[in-house]
Structure formats: structure tokens, C-alpha cells
Amino acid sequence: MQASKLEKLKQVLMEKRRSLLSEVRERKTATMEASSDGIQDIADQASTAYTKEFLLSIGDAERRLLRQVDEALEKIKGGSYGLCEKCGEEIHERRLEALPFAKYCISCQEEEERR
Ligand SMILES: [Zn+2]
Question: Which residues, other chains included, contact 87 with Cβ-Cβ below 8 Å and sequence gap of 6+?
């Protein structure tokens, strides 16, 4: 992959990382507000508990995504970025542009999803 293209994808990944982190931070604040709300025993407060759970579950998905972004950035550093983790072939650039933290090439991804 061309260095300029790699650099561009790295910028995209770092931007994604930044926005994810700020979203997670905002949500954490919102979660804390949802649980404090002046209520001592939130176990009795079904709706509050639900809201909190909902917010935390969103956080999980974001954490996963964040890890994928981090892994991709590590691979850029290590020089193995853009290679499929399964078959070792280069992942198509178009695919990386759409999904910069893709781990697998399209055919391996499809195979994974069929399972
Ligand atoms: Zn592959």
C-alpha cells in the first residue's frame, strides 16, 4: 500500500478513535447522572435501571469498536496493516476505505459470517 494512502487511513482511524472516546466519555457522564438522580436505592427504580443498562450496553459496542480501531493502529505501526488475518492476502483498498479497521478480506469475512 502507498505510504500516502496508509497515512490517510491512519488519520481516519485516529479521528474515529477521538470521536469514540468523547462519545464514551459523554455517555459515562449521562450514565452517572441517570444513576444518581437523587435516588438512594436504584434497584427499586425499574426505569432508571433500564436506562442505565441501555447506556452501558451501548458502551460495550463502542468499547469493541475502539479495540478494533486500536488494533488497526497497532498494525499500522507494526507494518502488517491491510493484510487479512486469516489468509494473509492484502485487503482491498476500497474495503479499507469503507472500513479502515477491517481484519479480514471480503471472502474471509463472508466465510466468517456464514458460520
Ligand atoms: Zn482473507
Answer: 105, 107, 108
